[in-house]
Amino acid sequence: MHSSLRRAATACCLIAGLNVTSAWAAPLAPVKPSGVVTLASDGTTCAGGGLLVNTGILPDGTTTPFTIPAKQVLVITEVEWGVIDVPASQTFDFYLFLKTTPATALPLVASSALADATGHAGTTTQVSDAIVKAGPSLCAVDYPGSTSLFLVRGFLARDK
């Protein structure tokens, strides 16, 4: 009788464990390849400073205007940036942020790099938990100011 009770308790625990495991959400990922995006700026400035992230770079190298479609979100996975022709051994910072008003900025990504002897600085930063809805401006800026080159990578997902 004791072993029957033990088997029943074990079976209940296994079933409960299966139910808990199946309740976990799948990782957020693109649904189809066309949802993957690489973004940059066409040089348009954001209100209050920075460059507006408003250009999509297509797989064939061409560009197209970009805005986050209605009922979707942009999930940012990586930011690559660099500056050129800068003083060696100087630290440069890069910021990706949301502008909800000209006076309000919500930081999403911050990274730093030290300029090398040839006057180049930059890095690639992996990003997690940066989800942007349609509406606010996505902007980028480096400090101290110079001509920054940057790419924002991620994917579009349905806004639930």
Description:
This protein is mainly beta. It has one domain: Jelly Rolls (Sandwich), CATH 2.60.120. It is built from 1 helix and 10 strands; from the N terminus they run H-E-E-E-E-E-E-E-E-E-E. The strands form 2 sheets. Strands 4-3-1-10-5-8 form a 6-stranded antiparallel beta sheet, with no helix packed on it. The radius of gyration is 22 Å and the shape is globular. It starts with a helix and ends with a strand.
- Counting H and I runs of at least 4 residues, what is the number of helices? 1
What's the number of structural domains? 1
Strand content: over 45%
Mean pLDDT reading:
82
Q: Might you state the CATH topology name?
A: Jelly Rolls
* Classification by helices and strands: mainly beta
CATH class: Mainly Beta
Strand order of the largest sheet: 4-3-1-10-5-8
Radius of gyration: 22 Å
Which SSEs are present, and which pair or pack?
Blueprint: H1 2-22, E1 36-40, E2 51-52, E3 55-57, E4 63-65, E5 72-83, E6 91-101, E7 104-114, E8 121-133, E9 137-143, E10 148-158
Antiparallel strand pairs: 1-3, 1-10, 2-9, 3-4, 5-8, 5-10, 6-7, 6-9
